[in-house]
Amino acid sequence: MTRRIVPKLSKEEYEKNFSDVKPPLSKDAALLEANRCLYCYDAPCIEACPTHIDIPSFIKKIATNNLKGSARVIMESNIMGGTCARVCPVEILCEGACVYNNIKEAKPIDIGRLQRYATDYIFENNIQLFKREKDNGKKVAVIGAGPAGLSCAHKLSMLGYQVTVYEKKDKAGGLNLYGLAAYKITNEFVEKEIEYITSIGGIEIKYNQEVGKNVDIQDLLNSYDAVFIGIGLGKTPKLNIPGEELEGVYDAIQFIENLRINPLEKVSIGEVVAVIGAGNTAIDAATQAKRLGAKKVYIIYRRTQNEMPANIYEYNLALKDECEFLWLTNPTKIIGDTFVEAIECIRMELGEPDSSGRRMPIPIKNSEFLLKVDTVIKALGQISYTNFLTKIQGLELDKGRIKVNPETMQTSIPKLFAGGDCINGGKETVNAVQDGKLAALGIHKMIFS
Ligand SMILES: Cc1cc2nc3c(=O)[nH]c(=O)nc-3n(C[C@H](O)[C@H](O)[C@H](O)COP(=O)(O)OP(=O)(O)OC[C@H]3O[C@@H](n4cnc5c(N)ncnc54)[C@H](O)[C@@H]3O)c2cc1C
After folding, report:
1. Which of 1, 365, 430, 445 is the most buried (most CB within 10 A)?
2. 65-114, pLDDT tens digit by residue?
3. Which residue ranges form the domains of the chain, and what is each CATH number?
4. How far is the CA of 438 from the centre of ligand 1 (A)?
5. Which protein residues are within 6 Å of ligand 1, measured from CB?
C-alpha cells in the first residue's frame, strides 16, 4: 500500500491559496472608513485592546492624511502594531467593543485594517519613528526573540539600556515567524518588522543560544542588571494512544513551522486529514492542510461547540474552508503499518463539570468507529518548558506558568522578569507585546527608583 499524498502546490497555487485573508485597504477605502469613526469619548475599543492603543486618535489622523502621526500613536503603545493589525482576533477585541455593534444594520469600524494602513506606510517609506535615549550604563538580557522578548528589548533600548537577546533558533520572531498562519502574515513582513525594531540600536540578538543548554541562566542573572524571560511554550502534548509514532502523524506546531519555513518543499499532506483538538492552533492546522490540497479535513473534538476553545472568527474560517467538525468524538487508536491509514474514534457524552468548569466528556461504550485518514495532526495546545523552568532556583510557577506581579512582570526572583505565553499559558501576540512593554517599565522602575 502506498501513502495517499496530495501533489505539492506550485508557487502560483500556493500564492493563491495562502493569499492574505484580510487584504490591505486602498487610500479611498481607508479615508471612507476613518471618517465613519465616531471618535467616542472614553472609547470602549481602547479598553478592549490589551496594549491600549488610542484608537480614535490614530483613526482621526488617518482621516486628516497624517499617516506618520497615526502610526506613531499605534506603535508607541504597541511596537508590533503592524503584526497585530494582521493577526489580532479583532472581532473579540477592539472591533468587538466598537459602539457600532449596538446600532442595528451598522458594522463595526474596520480597526485592524486601518491600523495596517497606517503602519504599512511607515515600513514602505522607511520612516524611523523612535529615538533611543542616551546610554544609561545598564544592561539587560532577554531570553527569547518572540513578540514578548522583542517588545521588551525595544522599550528597554528606548530607555537607554544595552540589551542582549538570547534566541535558541537561527531567526528571530518566535511564533510570528513559526506559528501564525501563512494567510495572515508573510515571512517578509515579519523580517521587516524585526529589522525596524532592532534598527534603533542598543539591541544585539545572539542566535542559536539556548538558555538552559548552552547558556546558564545563573550566569545571566550574575552578569546583567536584569533578565527577562519570554520563551513561549513548547510542543503539543502526546495523545498517548497506539500508533502515534506512525509516519504521517504530526505535531501541529511542527507542521505549521515547516509550512512557514519552506511551504513548497517540507510539507506533505495526505488526501484525508484528521486534526485532533478544537483550539485556534487546531483550526490553523486544519485550514492550512485544506489550502495545501487535502480533499477532506476532520476536526475531532471530545466536547461540543459550546466548550470549543477556538474563537468564533477562527471557527468561521474553518467552516469557510469546508473543514468538518466531529464533536463529542475522541481518538483511541491510529492504525497503519508504517504510515497512517485510519484512525479509530469513540463517541463521547458530557457528564458533570470538571476542575476547568467545563462538562467532562465520557466515552460511550461500544461506540467506536473507523475513519480512513492519511494524516493526523495533533493540536492539543502547547506544554510549558517545565524542565528548564523548574531548574531555576527560587522561581515560582503555577501549573507550569511563571508567576509574575501583573503590574511589573517581576517574578519571585527580584532581578528576573517574564511575559508572554510562558506566563499566560498561551494567549495572543498582542498580550505578549504588552507583557514585554510592562516588563521593560518594571525593570526600569526596579533599577532607577
Ligand atoms: C499555531 C498558532 C497560531 C497562532 N495564531 C495567532 C493569531 O492568529 N493571532 C494572535 O494574535 N496570536 C496567535 N497565536 C499566539 C501567538 O503566536 C503567541 O501568543 C505569541 O507568539 C507569544 O509570544 P511569546 O514571545 O511569548 O512566545 P513565542 O512567540 O513562542 O517566542 C518565544 C521565543 O523564545 C525562543 N526560546 C524558547 N526557549 C528558549 C531558550 N531556552 N533560550 C532561548 N530562546 C528560547 C523561541 O525560539 C522563540 O523565538 C498563535 C499561536 C500558535 C501556536
Report:
1. 430
2. 999 999 999 999 999 999 999 999 999 999 999 999 999 889 999 999 99
3. 21-124 (1.10.1060.10), 139-234+383-448 (3.50.50.60), 249-378 (3.50.50.60)
4. 18
5. 87-88, 143-149, 166-169, 174-175, 179-180, 184, 210-212, 230-232, 253, 256, 280-281, 284, 388, 420-422, 427-430, 432
